[in-house]
Amino acid sequence: MQEITGLELSPKKVEYLKFLLKKGDLVKTTDISNELHVDPSTTTKTITDLSESGYVDHVPYRGVRLTATGREYAEFFVNRHNILSLMLSHYGLSSEEACSEVSRFEAFVSKSAIDRICGSMGHPTVGVCGKIKHSSCSSL
Amino acid sequence: MQEITGLELSPKKVEYLKFLLKKGDLVKTTDISNELHVDPSTTTKTITDLSESGYVDHVPYRGVRLTATGREYAEFFVNRHNILSLMLSHYGLSSEEACSEVSRFEAFVSKSAIDRICGSMGHPTVGVCGKIKHSSCSSL
DNA sequence: CAAATTGTTTGGTGCCATACCAAAGATTAG
DNA sequence: CTAATCTTTGGTATGGCACCAAACAATTTG
Question: Boundaries of each HTH dtxR-type domain copy (chains A, B) (predicted)?
Answer without folding.
Answer: 9-67
